[in-house]
């Protein structure tokens, strides 16, 4: 990603065909060492291609990818009228349990 980011920055700066040395110069200016193997692969894959066309092509591909977010189903509406009282269930009451100190923290109290 850092190599691609440097390539794009150089493209924004007017260099339409950045070389590996150009990209290394950008990365070294911010203290990042370039990985020669990845850099060579990036340069070979982008060689002779217009970056704006690649971005446009990628955008159309991303538009066709489903992005989830269907959301949950809506809760059913409550019964209206006098029948509402009949539909309520009586919940059993829980007995109050005596509070006991637990040893889950093995005797260590972080906050007190």
Explain this structure to me?
By secondary structure, this protein is mainly alpha-helical. Helix content is 44%, strand content 0%. The chain has 5 helices and no strands. Helix 1 packs across helix 2.
Count helical runs.
5
- Which value, in Å, is the CA radius of gyration? 31 Å
How would you state the average pLDDT, rounded? Answer: 78
Structural class: mainly alpha
Q: List unreliable stretches of 5+ residues.
A: none
The percent range for helix content is: 40-55%
What letter string, H or E per element, gives the SSE order? HHHHH
Q: Please provide the count of β strands.
A: 0
Shape designation:
elongated
User: For the terminal residues, how far apart are their CA atoms?
Assistant: 46 Å
Biggest sheet record: none
- How much strand content do the residues show? under 5%
């Amino acid at each position: 990603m850092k190599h691609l980011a440097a390539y794009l920055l150089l493209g924004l700066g007017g260099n339409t065909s950045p070389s590996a040395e150009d990209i290394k110069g950008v990365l070294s200016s911010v203290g990042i060492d370039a990985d020669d193997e990845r850099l060579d692969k990036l340069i070979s894959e982008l060689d002779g291609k217009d970056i704006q066309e690649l971005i446009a092509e990628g955008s159309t591909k991303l538009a066709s990818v489903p992005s989830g977010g269907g959301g949950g189903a809506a809760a059913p509406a409550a019964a209206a009228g006098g029948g509402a009282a009949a539909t309520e269930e009586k919940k059993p009451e829980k007995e109050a349990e005596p509070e006991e100190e637990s040893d889950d923290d093995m005797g260590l109290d972080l906050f007190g």
